[in-house]
Design brief:
globular; Trna Endonuclease, Chain: A, domain 1
């Protein structure tokens, strides 16, 4: 996911100042966010004006998608383009991009997106549902060398993320995002059904075509 795509996804349902947008989108330094937003403003894609940031609640220069501001017929949500020439569809960053796009299209407010390419610490996706409930999602890809052992480790890592998230805040909705149609993941999920029932987490399956289904 490019920096521009991160900024657009984060602004899908929020009006943010450059400082908060930099943190929420994991795009740094702040000057990069400023340049991207200036470009989007000149393209008439966003409003950039003196307003109230929805995160820090301060009166600052804020950024907001135009289709939310003017209440006209909703424009299509931005598609998060993926460079499939350098990374396979089941790479973690591609899985993350499709899930973020899916959430934005379903009226979720994207709070933050981790930079999976640089292994940024923190939750891979944080979003707010239309009902106001926060969701934390751990994203995993699939090993390029089709290593079943490595895939098991990644699956276990995703579950451990959820356990830590649950311990941090049991009221938050939880989820894991995985590439679809890999036997290892498909076979492992039923074996942890008891944990899924206990923590009530969702599984976001991403297909090779970019379609997201929720289980």
């Amino acid at each position: 996911m490019t920096n521009k795509e991160r900024v657009i996804a984060t602004l899908s349902n929020l009006e943010l100042c450059d400082d908060c947008l930099s943190v929420a989108s994991s795009v740094a330094p702040r000057q990069t966010v400023y340049s991207i937003c200036r470009s989007l403003f000149e393209e008439a894609y966003i409003f950039r004006h003196h307003g109230i940031c929805e995160h820090c609640h301060k009166a600052k220069t804020t950024n907001q998608l135009q289709n939310k501001r003017n209440h006209l017929e909703e424009m299509p949500k931005p598609e998060l383009k993926i460079d499939s020439s350098t990374k396979p569809w089941f790479w973690e960053g591609n899985v993350q991009s499709h899930v973020v796009s899916y959430l934005a299209k379903n009226s979720y407010k994207i709070r933050s997106i981790a930079d999976t390419a640089s292994r940024t610490a923190g939750k891979d996706i944080i979003a707010l549902s239309p009902e106001g409930k926060e969701i934390w999602i751990s994203v995993k890809g699939y090993p390029e060398k089709s290593s079943n052992v490595q895939a098991r480790h990644w699956f276990s890592s995703a579950l451990f993320d959820l356990i830590l998230y649950y311990g941090e805040n049991p009221q938050v909705q939880l989820g894991i995002a995985l590439p679809k149609d890999f036997t290892t993941y498909a076979n492992l999920l039923p074996r942890v059904g008891w944990l899924k029932a206990q923590m009530q987490f969702n599984v976001f399956w991403v297909s090779a075509e970019g379609t997201v289904t929720v289980e």
